């Protein structure tokens, strides 16, 4: 399910929540939200870049915990064991 971002249409007629913008986890079929869930002020969906993949650090942490070994390339034919 995508995370959609919303922000107030008119910051003068909004609460802090929608003035600063907020995120909602919604299904693909869900229509765009028209109002702030806290104050009822008008909001509009913001255009944002999709999140692709995962964090590199999270991958390394999981690999280390699972007992895998990681090497870092130092030069041509040279590698250093990280863990």
Automatic annotation (TrEMBL):
Residues 1-48 form the Putative regulatory protein FmdB zinc ribbon domain. It comes from the Bacteria. NCBIfam families: CxxC_CxxC_SSSS. This is Putative regulatory protein FmdB zinc ribbon domain-containing protein.
